[in-house]
Amino acid sequence: QVHLVESGGGLVQAGSSLRLSCVFSGYTYNWGCAGWFRQAPGKEREEVAGREGVAVIDSAGGTAYADSVKGRFTISSDDAKNILYLQMNNLKPEDTAMYYCAAGQGCAGNWYQTAYGMAHWGKGTLVTISS
User: In terms of Cα–Cα distance, which of 93, 55, 97 is closest to 74?
Assistant: First the structure.
């Protein structure tokens, strides 16, 4: 069993920065694609379908970002692929959401398929940005 546990969320003002972390535990999972997704308040019942892709990284280190976060967010992982990070700068009120990390075998060509292809999900960490 693989467990993903997110941390680093909180309440900050617009323009601030936060760094999210996601620790992988359990048996060693050699993921091909890992990423961060977010779900705005009120969409919790939609589960995967309601989660917006934010950033992904593949096993070769290639990254992709949602247009809304390009230039502000950076995804990275440690060399052992046991920790996934999301550095978030210049945060905006519209970034307010529950942030989930996820991992799977490969990144698909679009966010929808990438999300559904993720085999493992964390329980999320809440990010709230005040204006």
Answer: 55
